[in-house]
Design a protein that fits this description.
Bound molecules: ligand DP6
Oligomer: single chain
Strand order of the largest sheet: 8-7-9-6-1-17
Low-confidence stretches: none
Largest sheet: 6 strands, mixed
Helix content: 25-40%
Mean pLDDT: 94
Distance between the termini: 15 Å
CATH class of the largest domain: Alpha Beta
Number of helices: 9
Number of strands: 17
């Protein structure tokens, strides 16, 4: 039995991907750009074993067996095996013959799926990276991860990553590329404000399909707004210009949610807690007369806040004040440590509003981090000697 274990990160888009021009190949209608989050706080771990004793390909997600015949899963398996055969025929050897063996795949997240945090990007990135390690395939892999879930292609790199939409029909030029490494902007901090869970919302795949069919605003966005915004965003990252980075991030999130409202029937991802966070961020920035924090929301009500060290300490206090934690014993702040920061009288009155107890369940503090890695730590291995989940 040959076995590998790898981990892969979550990413948060600051120029959003929303809408496909090809559903099967997962080709987008616009380019997008994201920040890869640190795996110390959020990651997927995947172990894959190949053995001549296995009779079929199988997969377990968070301990439960899942359907291996899912078309997107099959695309990734097929494409990586195709690449492995191609690379092998051009030189390298499949010494143990594992390309003809079936695989067992075991994958877990270190964050609760119930928190509504996107797990498909980290999940597919981890699957593709682990398969590549198993078969000894090197080089460009984001094109395959993209076929699992669009946003997954961006999780194949660390730091600041763009997904170039490409032009070709076969998608060969629809790839992710690193813009800057995770070490580029060491002061940057990311807070995930997990909003109180509600009923399940419309998933990204179905949501963006309806938007493409019905929203004239989405077409305008893709054709006339995103190209310029990508260039500006890259420049603001390269210059570490938070004023510009933060404003573009908020405007892009708002425009994405505007296209959701422009979709017919409309899609609502933001709830009252999200709206309060938006207003809180604007009041905080107005108090200082500059953009010190910025928000972004994906297909759900959780807020992602970007800020810089040391503002992070004060802003965490601001969040606690506006959303007094429910005293259920669970830690309210998770992840990177923050130092207590007293709030001035002026700031307190500037952000004053109705407190919303329990509106934010908890906050995860993190920073930009590296792309997928192969683990050498046997304690992370999810598959036992019998080829089944441990
Ligand atoms: C709002 O990548 O989950 O998070 O390609 O259909 O799997 P599929 O969609 P997915 O969409 C992500 C949408 C988003 C914005 C983004 O991450 O760019």
């Amino acid at each position: 039995m040959k076995k590998v274990t790898c981990t892969a990160p979550v990413n948060i888009a600051v120029v959003k991907y929303w809408g496909k021009r090809n559903e099967d190949l997962i080709l987008p209608i616009n380019s997008s750009l994201s920040v890869t989050l640190h795996q110390d706080q959020l990651k997927t771990t995947t172990s894959i074993a190949a053995s001549r004793d296995f009779t079929e390909d199988r997969i377990w997600l968070n301990g439960k067996e899942d359907d291996i015949n899912h078309p997107r899963l099959q695309s990734c398996l097929r494409e990586i095996r195709r690449l492995a055969r191609k690379r092998r025929s051009s030189g390298s050897e499949d010494v143990s013959g594992i390309l003809n063996y079936k695989v067992h795949i075991c994958s877990i997240n270190n964050f609760p799926t119930a928190a509504g945090l996107a797990s498909s990007a980290a999940g597919y990135a981890c699957l593709v990276y682990s398969l590549a390690k198993l078969y000894g395939v090197e080089g460009e892999l984001s094109e395959i991860a993209r076929q699992g879930s669009g946003s997954a292609c961006r999780s194949m790199y660390g730091g600041f990553v763009q997904w170039l939409m490409g032009e070709r029909e076969d998608g060969k030029d629809s790839l992710a590329q690193q813009v800057e490494a995770e070490t580029h902007w060491p002061e940057l901090r990311i807070l995930i404000l997990v909003a109180s869970a509600e009923k399940k919302h419309v998933g990204s795949t179905a949501g963006m399909q309806t938007s493409v069919e019905t929203s004239p605003l989405l077409k305008l966005r893709a054709e006339s707004v995103v190209p310029g915004r990508m260039a500006e965003m890259i420049e603001s990252i390269k210059k570490k210009d938070f004023e510009s980075f933060g404003q573009l991030t908020m405007k892009d999130s708002n425009q994405f949610h505007a296209t959701c409202l422009d979709t017919f029937p409309p899609i609502f991802y933001l709830n009252q807690v999200s709206q309060r966070i938006i207003s809180l961020v604007h009041r905080y920035n107005a108090h200082y007369g500059q953009t010190k924090v910025a928000y972004s929301f994906d297909a759900g009500p959780n807020a992602v806040i970007f800020t810089l060290e040391p503002t992070v300490n004060e802003f965490v206090e601001v969040v606690k004040r506006s959303f007094p934690p429910a005293s259920n014993g669970d830690p309210f702040i998770k992840g990177l440590p923050v130092s207590p920061a007293p709030l001035s009288q002026e700031l307190t009155s500037a952000i004053e509003g109705d407190a919303c107890p329990g509106g934010v369940r908890y906050v995860i503090v993190t920073q930009p981090g590296p792309g997928p890695v192969q683990s050498q730590d046997p304690s992370l291995d999810l598959i036992g000697a019998d080829g089944l989940p441990k």
